From TrEMBL:
This is Outer membrane beta-barrel protein. The keyword Signal applies. Keywords: Signal. Residues 1-18 form the signal peptide. Pfam families: BBP2.
């Protein structure tokens, strides 16, 4: 009996020690799916044209993307695999239908204030993001569409204090998985209390971009988001600014407006010639459990006659109604 009790105590001690030495591990799966209906109010739906911004460019009933995100968290290290399928996903990964990786990176929390990340991660520039769950407006802005979507490289995030943060990065040129040119880009982000000043530089592609992203809670129910950017590569690029006022009318419903002015500089895009555009997007957002329903009205006014009206005559404006359904899990 003494031997049995001794063996039992040794076994229990071994189990307790083993439990204490086992590192904390956490695996989670999440993501989203979205679909929408869109019709032009000032042009036939079959004209084959769109606003010129990314995603949500189809008419009738259309698909967004299926986004599946797997996350592994250890005590100080972890990894993220973010896969995107569907038209929005193909556009997000650079138009290559054989690649469905939106993000794929590993990270190391070197200390409480320093984090290193290596792999493919979404851009730090701009107010809007690829995932429709995180954007208030369903259609995207020109600033988002003309900036980078993702980067492949190494970045270091530093929490300098409760309010100040700094990020430094060295990367391939924007939206390039395999660096065949031998050119690299540099990025930096300085943050203060939810306001961010971003910098990007590369010898090829986008060139130099400076970007401000931020926002202010003007009241408990009224938020104002702000985005402004300037990009230049040997005289070609863009500049623009956008405001995002949003009002929560109840726990489940909010309404928001995006007003944006965007100007292409020189011949940055072969499809535009000294154009600028003013776009207004009014979006409602109703949340039911994990389902988000977004009715949206959008009107774009271009300085050139780049659209068609209902008689197929050239015109400077295009209006559309969109109804989107987004489910996150």
């Amino acid at each position: 009996m003494k031997k049995l009790i001794t063996l039992s105590m040794l076994f229990m001690a071994t189990v307790v020690i083993g439990q204490e030495e086992t590192p904390t591990k956490k695996v989670s799966i999440g993501g989203s799916v979205d679909a929408y209906y869109q019709t032009y109010l000032t042009a036939p739906d079959n004209i084959g044209a769109s606003f010129g911004s990314s995603f949500a460019e189809q008419t009738g009933f259309a698909l967004g993307m299926a986004n599946i995100i797997a996350t592994y968290e250890g005590e100080t290290t972890g990894a993220v695999a973010d896969l995107a399928f569907g038209p929005r996903g193909v556009g997000a990964v650079g138009g290559d239908e054989s690649i469905f990786i939106n993000q794929l990176y590993a990270y190391w929390n070197v200390s409480e204030s320093t984090k290193l990340t290596m792999g493919r991660f979404n851009t730090f520039l701009g107010y809007e993001v690829i995932s429709p769950v995180a954007n208030f407006n369903y259609s995207t802005s020109y600033l988002f569409s003309n900036g980078p979507f993702s980067h492949v490289g190494l970045k270091a995030d530093f929490a300098l204090s409760d309010d100040f943060s700094l990020m430094l990065a060295v990367m391939n040129e924007t939206d390039v998985n395999n660096n065949m040119s031998g050119d690299y880009s540099l990025g930096a982000q300085f943050g203060y209390a939810g306001q961010f000043l971003n910098f990007y530089y590369a010898n090829v592609g986008l060139g130099f971009e400076v970007d401000y992203t931020g926002g202010f809670d003007l009241s408990d129910s009224f938020f104002l988001g702000i985005n402004a950017a300037y990009a230049d590569n040997d005289g070609e690029g863009f500049m623009g600014a956008a405001l995002y006022p949003q009002v929560a009318t109840s726990d489940n419903f909010s309404i928001g407006l995006r007003g944006e002015f965007f100007d292409w500089l020189s011949d940055a895009d072969s499809s535009v010639d000294d154009q600028d555009v003013f776009a207004v997007t009014l979006t409602g957002s109703y949340t039911l459990e994990n389902l988000i329903i977004k009715p949206e009205l959008r009107l774009d006014s271009n300085s050139q006659e780049v659209y068609s009206d209902n008689d197929l005559a050239p015109t400077k404006s295009l209006a559309a109604f969109t109804l989107a359904a987004i489910y996150s899990f």
